[in-house]
Amino acid sequence: MEILDGKKISNQIKDEIAAEVAKMKENGEKVPHLAAIIVGNDGASLTYVGSKVRSCKRVGFESTLVQMPSTTSEVELLKKIKELNENSDIDGFIVQLPLPDQIDTQKVIMAIDPDKDVDGFHPTNFGKMALDMSTFIPATPFGILELLERYGVETQGKHTVVIGRSHIVGRPMSILMGRKGFPGNSTVTLTHSRTKNITQITSQADIIISALGVPKFLKAEMVKDDVVIIDVGITRVPDDTKEKGYYITGDVDFEHVSKKASYITPVPGGVGPMTIAMLMKNTLLARERHRSRK
């Protein structure tokens, strides 16, 4: 069993990006600039955005954090998005999800300029991804592909089972793992909360990508020997014995499933760090795209 170490690989990617940014600076070029909008003060969202800002600093990007109160109206947020769309200094930006109830998430995603949508959520980018065209791939699926590629995990002709059908992870992964090329060329089954006899399906899988958000959902008896496990789930489970009052766990019963797996991602330290690294990579791509048009 080999651990797919997202922390290690994400650090390698950030080092590679930092080297490219250093060259840009040497040549007197503008460095990439990533902005993030956060509405409200959700603890997990603040943590994520904080680590994105720190990562920008590490690789040499400019970064802008726009914090808006939880009472922000949809109109106010859309106005701020318009400002960032029109600001030529900003190469890419994200709106941290989830948003407060008074704001229509779909409307917000639609308002972002597809050329600055480094999260890859806009329908234009999602459609291009589905058609195998050059575009921004959502950061978490992009990170999973990178992990599989850098560890040389064989995907061709394999049976990949994706658990979860979210637009952020499940659905894009089901498309990407079935595309031509590497990683890809696998036969994909997309499962979700309404799937019957899920154990029957997972026990035949060569690769399982779980993005359900249910702690320790995937048990050892649900997988076959030598399976490749990608655990995207990340849940804070309350625990008074821990200093923070909770512990973080994934969708996979790691202790028992890891005994049967050939490769497995840990939680934390697997897919999570990769997501932020690939957001940096998308921002670099956005900068290059904007430069080539000038």
From TrEMBL:
This protein's GO CC annotations: cytosol
Keyword Hydrolase: yes
A Gene Ontology BP annotation from the UniProt entry: purine nucleotide biosynthetic process
InterPro entries xref list: Aminoacid_DH-like_N_sf (IPR046346), NAD(P)-bd_dom_sf (IPR036291), THF_DH/CycHdrlase (IPR000672), THF_DH/CycHdrlase_cat_dom (IPR020630), THF_DH/CycHdrlase_CS (IPR020867), THF_DH/CycHdrlase_NAD-bd_dom (IPR020631)
The organism's place on the tree of life at top rank: Bacteria
Boundaries of every Tetrahydrofolate dehydrogenase/cyclohydrolase catalytic domain copy: 4-119
Domain Tetrahydrofolate dehydrogenase/cyclohydrolase NAD(P)-binding: 138-290
Residues reported to bind NADP(+): 164-166, 234
UniProt xrefs under SUPFAM superfamilies: Aminoacid dehydrogenase-like, N-terminal domain, NAD(P)-binding Rossmann-fold domains
Pathway field: One-carbon metabolism; tetrahydrofolate interconversion
Listed EC numbers: 1.5.1.5, 3.5.4.9
An example Gene Ontology molecular-function term: methenyltetrahydrofolate cyclohydrolase activity
Keyword annotations from UniProtKB, A to Z: Amino-acid biosynthesis, Histidine biosynthesis, Hydrolase, Methionine biosynthesis, Multifunctional enzyme, NADP, One-carbon metabolism, Oxidoreductase, Purine biosynthesis
Reactions mediated catalytically: (6R)-5,10-methylene-5,6,7,8-tetrahydrofolate + NADP(+) = (6R)-5,10-methenyltetrahydrofolate + NADPH; (6R)-5,10-methenyltetrahydrofolate + H2O = (6R)-10-formyltetrahydrofolate + H(+)
Assembly mode: Homodimer.
Protein family per UniProt: Belongs to the tetrahydrofolate dehydrogenase/cyclohydrolase family.
HAMAP family according to UniProt: THF_DHG_CYH
Function: Catalyzes the oxidation of 5,10-methylenetetrahydrofolate to 5,10-methenyltetrahydrofolate and then the hydrolysis of 5,10-methenyltetrahydrofolate to 10-formyltetrahydrofolate.
Protein's name according to its UniProt entry: Bifunctional protein FolD
Taxonomic source organism: Maribacter polysiphoniae
